[in-house]
Amino acid sequence: MAEDKRSLEAECEVTVLHPERLENVRRHLPTQQTLDDLSQTLKLLADPTRLLILSALLFEELCVCDLAALTHVNESTMSHQLRLLRLQDLVQFRKVGRIAYYRLSGEKSRQVVMRVTGITPEVPVP
């Protein structure tokens, strides 16, 4: 009963809108498309293998087989993980003969990875 009362106390007792406050907040909020994109990126970053891949790519461009060895997954699984990261524009690749080398897509990807992991290129991966 006491919990129900506290719950009610946290709610507004009257319906009063502060349009100027709402408008101020709305001007600063991201668009729905930005929120959707960010949500997809965060879902990708929630996977430890993908975080390890992105962390490694902060330091060095690596081929699929090296990334597979680093993360202890097979090459097929690695290719799938890289495809997901590529679709979200976090990584890109170049082919040399039959070997695909992956790197972070650019400065935006680098900044995302560094902020999420706390790693900077000057600090070795633990």
UniProtKB/TrEMBL annotation:
SMART domains: HTH_ARSR (SM00418). Coiled coil: none annotated. Keywords: DNA-binding, Transcription, Transcription regulation. The lineage of its organism: Bacteria, Thermotogati, Deinococcota, Deinococci, Deinococcales. InterPro entries: ArsR-like_HTH, HTH_ArsR_DNA-bd_dom, Metal_resp_trans_reg, WH-like_DNA-bd_sf, WH_DNA-bd_sf. This is DNA-binding transcriptional ArsR family regulator. Residues 30-124 form the HTH arsR-type domain. The keyword Transcription regulation applies. GO terms for molecular function: DNA binding; DNA-binding transcription factor activity. NCBIfam families: HTH_metalloreg (NF033788). It comes from Deinobacterium chartae.
